[in-house]
Structure formats: C-alpha cells, structure tokens
C-alpha cells in the first residue's frame, strides 16, 4: 500500500509538472488569442537594469519569443533604424515620492465652471499629482493566472489589486488608477505590452486608427508618444516617431501603454472636439488619463460621468486634454475609461476611492505609486 501511495503521488506530481510545462509552452509559442506572450516577473523592482537587458543579450528560456513573435519584431526593426535616444541624465529633483489628491466638483470648487461638462452639467473629477524620487516608485500591476501569465480572464478590481501588491511587495500604495486593458479590451489584444521594464508582448497593431499611438515612460523619468510600425494613419504630430520593441528595451523603457489617443503633445492639444475612442462619437464619458509635466512629475486624471450623483454625460477627450493642459502637462494620454475608470488614494490619513459606494469593474491592470 505504501508503494502504491508513493506511485500515485509521483504520478500526480509528474502530471502537475507536465501541465505547467505545457502551459508555459503554449503561452511562449502560441500565446493568448494566437499572440505569443511572456510570464510576468515576480519582482522587477529591485534591479531595473537587470530587468531590461540590452537587445543584444541572449534571452532567457522563459522569455524566448515564438517564430511569429520573431517575425513581427524583425519586421518592426526593419522599418525603424533609429539612433539610440539621448537620455536625461539629471537625477530626480524630488527627495521623496509624494502624491497630492484633489477632488473637483461644483459644490466645493468651481472658480471657472471647471467642474461642468460641455452641456453645463456638474461633474466630479479627480487628480493625483505625483512626484517620484526614483523610477521604480512608478509601477504597474498586471493580473495573471496561477502560472503567472496575463490574459483575457485575468481580472480583479483595482482595490483588490492594491491589497495584493501591498502584501506581495511589502509596500504602501499611495495612489492608483486603472490602466489600458491591454489584454482585456477587444480592440487591444495586439500591440506592445511592456510593464515594469519587462516586455510581455511584442506584436504590433496595424491600421490607421489614431488610438494606435502609444505612450512610453523611460527609466529617466521622461515620457514620449510614439507609434508602432504597423500604424499607417496620419500622425497628429509629425514629430511622433515609430519605435520597435527592440528600441524600447534597448533604451530602457520602464512602462508602455497602448490605448490612446494622445491628448496633448509638445504642449499642444492634439485631439479634436469630435474625436473619441469609440464610434460613433460619444459627447462624454467617464475618463482616465495620464499627464506628463516634466521628468519624474505626472498627473493621474479620473472623471465621473454617466452615473449619479453627477447626472452628467462626462467629459469628452478634448475636455480632458483642456484640464490637463491647464495643469501644466506638456504630454497627456488617454487610458481605458467608462466603467473601468477607477481611482484609489491615501490622503489626509484617509482612503479616497472612486467609485466610492459601488463595486468597481474587474480590470486587468493598474498604474500605481509607492514610496519604497
């Protein structure tokens, strides 16, 4: 009986190992939805330099791309022979990472009717002004399956994600917003995914849609808008470059978002008054966006809409751009909105949440700030 029990345990263990190996093989070589994708690193924050090796380094077995991934990246590189970027060499001017939470609404603040939508309806919106002392204080979280891979069904509320990363990394999250739904939005199942210095997906999107403009946060605290090689539309700013994933990793990209469109570039609003993510155009919506003021200095933006107590349609993309421009942003980028728009912050020794009284949508990723 003892020998039989040992045999059963041994067989079960072998099946489990084989299952894990098969899962890894399927993800690395076939991916999710036919897209080759990679397992998320457990802890990329302790040494960012090691988490994004130069493209000339030999890839590890766990991150070896499939043949389709190689083909897409080779095509990407062939169309994008750019010299390496000149990185900012100035250290962060901030000796500690700080976050300032502000809630704007017509009851407590409205010097310029700023908390009214284009129809004159009151609307509440929030900003988190973030200054970081080092790049690894600006993080993203990607929900994964039990094997460490992201995917369509890997979802959790932002508030639960905050709790998860606090326990996993022994940190206190100062503030967080939802991300770009790069695995969970039907229109964004292709496109670059780079999180915390790690390239998770290299296949680029093809088409003319302006939402194919991406946003990159470099490890020197600066941000840039760019397009993937498959973009064939007209750039809203002729100076927006095209980057391959090889270029991004070689030049130490820390985060990449692929939702869009770009709202502000080079200090000018570049989104039109009738432009939106969805078609037909929506006059207003709940919105989430990131604004860039300068190296190591950003604004997270979340607005209500389509819900009580505002009874407002919400903001158009151009209205979001106007508010971020007024706050000093030289670059701004639209993230997933609608019911995905969620915010968390610790301010004045209390927890601020939107939505505050209802359970938020389960989402695939978040953007968050710590002081670690």
Task: Write up what this structure looks like.
It is built from six helices and 17 strands. It starts with a helix and ends with a strand. The longest helix has 29 residues, at 2-30. The protein is an alpha+beta fold. The model is unreliable at 11-34 and 50-80 (pLDDT under 50).
Defining traits:
single chain; 372 residues; alpha+beta; 7-stranded antiparallel β-sheet; 6 helices
> Which class of secondary structure composition applies to the elements?
alpha+beta
Per DSSP E runs of 2 or more residues, the count of β-strands stands at 17
Write out the strand line-up for the largest beta sheet, numbering strands in chain order.
1-2-13-12-14-10-11
Total tally of structural domains:
1
How far the N terminus sits from the C terminus, by CA atoms, comes to 53 Å
Following the backbone from N to C, one meets helices and strands in this order, namely HHHEEEHEEEEEHEEEEEHEEEE
Oligomer: single chain
Helix content: 10-25%
**Biggest sheet features:** 7 strands, antiparallel
Flag low-confidence runs. Answer: 11-34, 50-80
Which descriptor suits the 3D outline?
globular
């Amino acid at each position: 009986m003892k020998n039989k029990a040992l045999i059963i345990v041994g067989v079960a263990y072998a099946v489990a190992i084989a299952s894990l190996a098969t899962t890894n093989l399927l993800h690395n070589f076939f991916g999710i939805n036919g897209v080759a994708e990679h397992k998320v690193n457990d802890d990329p924050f302790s040494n960012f330099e090691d988490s994004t090796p130069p493209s000339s380094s030999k890839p590890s077995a766990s991150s070896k791309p499939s043949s389709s991934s190689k083909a897409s990246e080779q095509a990407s590189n062939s169309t994008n022979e750019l010299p390496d970027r000149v990185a900012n060499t100035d250290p962060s001017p901030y000796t500690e990472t700080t976050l300032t939470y502000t809630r704007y609404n017509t009851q407590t603040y409205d010097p310029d009717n700023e908390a009214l939508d284009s129809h004159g309806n009151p609307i509440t919106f929030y900003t988190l002004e973030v200054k970081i002392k080092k790049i690894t204080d600006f993080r993203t979280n990607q929900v994964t399956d039990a094997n460490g891979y992201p995917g369509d069904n890997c979802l959790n509320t932002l508030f639960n994600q905050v709790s998860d990363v606090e326990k996993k990394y022994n940190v206190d999250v100062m503030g967080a917003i939802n991300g770009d739904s790069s695995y969970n939005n039907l229109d964004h199942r292709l496109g670059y995914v780079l999180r915390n210095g790690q390239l998770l997906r290299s296949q680029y999107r093809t088409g003319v849609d302006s939402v194919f403009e991406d946003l990159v946060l470099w490890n020197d605290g600066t941000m840039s808008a760019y397009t993937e090689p498959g973009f064939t539309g007209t750039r809203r700013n002729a100076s927006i470059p095209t980057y391959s994933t090889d270029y991004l990793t070689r030049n130490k990209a820390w985060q990449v978002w692929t939702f869009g469109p770009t709202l502000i570039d080079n200090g000018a609003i570049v989104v039109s008054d009738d432009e939106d993510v969805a078609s037909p155009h929506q006059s207003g919506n709940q919105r989430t966006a990131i604004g860039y003021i300068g190296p190591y200095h950003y604004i997270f933006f979340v607005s209500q809409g389509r819900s009580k107590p505002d009874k407002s349609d919400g903001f158009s993309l151009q209205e979001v751009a106007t508010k971020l421009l007024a706050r000093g942003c030289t670059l701004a980028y639209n993230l997933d909105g609608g019911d995905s728009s969620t915010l968390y912050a610790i301010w004045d020794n209390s927890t601020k949440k939107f939505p505050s009284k209802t359970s938020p949508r389960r989402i695939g990723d978040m953007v968050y700030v710590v002081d670690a």
